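Reminder: ligand-aware prediction takes two inputs, not one.
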Amino acid sequence: MDIIRQVNEMMRWVREQRASGEEIGVVPTMGYLHEGHLSLCRLSSADGGRTVVTVFVNPTQFGAGEDLARYPRDEERDLKMLRELGISAVFLPTPEEMYPPDYVTYVETGGPSQGWCGATRPTHFRGVTTVISQMFHILQPNRAYFGQKDAQQVAVLKQMVRDLKFPIQVIVGEIVREPDGLAMSSRNTYLTAEDRKAALVLFRALQLGRDLYKQGEHSGERLTKAMLRVTAAEPHVRPDYIGVVNRRCFRAVEEVSPEDLLIGAIYVGSCRLIDNLDVSPQVYPLRD
Ligand code: AMP
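Here is what comes back for the chain with adenosine monophosphate:
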């Protein structure tokens, strides 16, 4: 497994692979890897060619006062996990490599980046689209793999890829959950035992939304209210948002249809967690 830290070295590696006819799949991450990340790596490996995993805690997607400084990091552990998976290369640039002191260029999408996480974290998606654009230019991948866990990020990145004509197939991996249903996240390490129990309320609220839809409740507003009642009953958490949206444009829907998404974000302890659930499972293909 090649471990590469410099942009020009990474570009040279990509040129060599391309010259020998290899296709490239990229799995962008912020490290502190868990089964969610590894599932994306396995999807890429199964598609063949070379898989490059990027490990970069991207400063521009954190707002002032967010958890950039304390975001969990363990490079040794990440590299060990990736070696065991047979990954071709890992790209670990420094912040200075990606954003030299004179860096001034940002990529901003409208549409799906508005509202929800975009409302609570106004500069977040601009940081994501900027760093992913850089990664796409450096790595020239045929395929890029993202997790459905970050559903709004998926909508934003698909929009960016369409609008900016990146010749890249975006492939989405299903949410990987702990046995009790909590969506895996590097940020789960912030949770105390009490927080950890309380955090499950988000998944329970989303599941209730799905159950009510199945029973015939198709009003987005009423489903949202019912899900909010579940989170309100857990005193240890504070909802950021709960809603039902169209998965492509991320606008709230009045009349819910099976391909829509139930979404939520909560504050628990010192942590903000997000999750989502398909209104109707297995309706929407993850590879389009
Ligand atoms: P992160 O390191 O949190 O930026 O995540 C890197 C990639 O892994 C993103 O595409 C995430 O959506 C994806 N990811 C994170 N958690 C999960 C999960 N529980 N299941 C599936 N994918 C995930």
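The longest strand covers residues 237-245. DSSP finds ten helices and nine strands in the chain. We will return to this case in the review session.
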